[in-house]
Backbone:
């Protein structure tokens, strides 16, 4: 389950961006919905969670990858940090754009989340679409 302080698909991110994933391999069958994974169960049986952010066109077609991070600790955070708080990507602190890419922030994006359990194949692969419109 991807968690964010706001629904970036409903309104564009303007100042900052952060995503957190809750995942539990051992909860399958025990938990009826991902949002019901407790903080105590978060990370149970999980090897890592990979965050991939791709720039997309208006139709959702891939243009290019702008960010990738693999998190190995529970409180899986898109930009690092963790228990109890994820690091937030603040646009004003990154004037050249996406970290390591120097790619401007404004545009439409796809967040792909890949959850890898300690045993077996990927549990989940979800795509979330969002937009960024930096306020200057």
Residues:
């Amino acid at each position: 389950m991807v968690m964010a302080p706001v629904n970036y698909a409903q309104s564009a991110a303007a100042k900052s961006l952060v995503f957190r994933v809750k995942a539990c391999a051992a909860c399958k069958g025990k938990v009826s919905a991902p949002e019901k994974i407790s903080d105590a169960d978060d990370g149970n049986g999980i090897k890592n969670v990979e965050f991939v952010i791709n720039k997309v066109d208006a139709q959702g077609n891939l243009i290019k990858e702008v960010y990738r991070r693999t998190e190995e600790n529970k409180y899986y955070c898109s930009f690092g940090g963790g228990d109890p708080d994820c690091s937030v990507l603040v646009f004003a602190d990154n004037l050249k754009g996406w970290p390591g890419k120097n790619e401007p922030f404004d545009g439409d994006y796809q967040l792909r989340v890949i959850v890898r359990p300690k045993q077996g194949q990927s549990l989940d692969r979800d795509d979330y679409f969002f937009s960024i419109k930096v306020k200057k």
User: Anything to note?
Assistant: The chain has no helices and eleven strands. The two ends are 32 Å apart (CA to CA). The chain has a mean pLDDT of 85. The CA atoms of residues 28 and 81 lie 26 Å apart.
